[in-house]
Amino acid sequence: MSTSLLxxxxxxxxxxxxxxxxxxxxxxxxxxxxxxxxxPLNLGECPQREIKVxxxxxxTALEEQRCNLHHRxxxxxxxxxxxxxxxxxxxxxSRVLAYLGLCGGEAAAFxxxxxxxxxxxxxxxxxxxxxxxxxxxxxxxxxxKSVDVLDSVETxxxxxxxxxxxxxxxxxxxxxSYGTQEVIFVQFRFKSAKMTAAAKNVKLDSRxxxxxxxxxxxxxxxxxxxxVITLSTATQDTYELKRFSGKLWDRAVRHVQIxxxxxxxxxxxxxxxxxFPHLMYTLYPFVEEKNTSLRTSDPIPWEKTSILxxxxxxxxxxxxxxxxxxRGNRKKPCRRMRELRRKLIAIHxxxxxxxxxxxxxxxxxxxAFVARYSARVKSYSSVTERVVxxxxxxxxxxxxxxxxxxxxxxxxxxxxxxxxxxxxxxxxHSRRRSKVRKG
Length: 439
Known about the structure:
alpha+beta, 2 domains, seven-stranded antiparallel beta sheet
């Protein structure tokens, strides 16, 4: 991330903390909230939540919890423009989280965003692959125009203190920024690692992704396959993923150019006050409590746990693809692949469950969890690579054996099919009838 963007974000965070010293806050991208609950959040409004409730047979069910509380106050509009765009090389899932931004663990877990699905950055990073034959580049544009701040009035504070039991563990929207985040990820898959290395060395002054694609074509050559992921948080549409073969390279470039034009149009509409898309939500508690679970903590364990989930999602995807090739095959490598797939799914469920309840854990518990599962995920990832390799070798050997048996099979007179025999019979019969007429 560029220095200017980092400085601006740090300044904004410090101003938010100074606005209400000592207060625990929850930050969530507006896109994540609206994608979950399908409606925006107004200043002073208490957000919706999706919580787990006990159902029969020791099971749990999801229930939407609506909050009718509202914090009154006056709104201060602050012009706080920030415009930063980059075109960067992405070499790992952690780089995706760094440039795209990861939703806060406490906020996502408290609101129930992870009960179904995950943070946007985790979902996108899970769809990309990082191998010696792939290269991933990302265009990330972050534009913020202004911020609205709700200033509390003393009468509202007095009412909340008198009825604190109704407001305990409830939050409201205090800061709301306006703007958009525009993202284009392009994954190039080349024929060789040498071509991939050459493509990674391509450098341009332009930030347009389509310019990079044309430069890669000219200096390295066309890739075998292309994956394009695009997102505009201003539209509230989910991210779009399209795959293209090497033969459709020009169509892939054109698709990216269309998306770039749409992004420029979106930014212009924000500047001219045609649209007012929400960018970030900052939630404050109605009542400040020392022992509340709604206190933000060190984000590093949350980021590490999210990377573990990404690694497992990628491993499960590879395991499922390999298992499909093993259908009907009962040999040992295929049996191990099916068993490994079940174990990967189980450990993924364990990690995701903890992440969905992140705000309930202490910092010590979070760090211990990361240390324990990091070793397990690393072990399972290496095992997955070995098992997948053994399955591929086995299938390759079986294919060669089948080819040799077919090659060594003695020539035989092909049997006539019923349809062909009937046609030949009709031809012979018509010839006989013609001879009889001539006679």
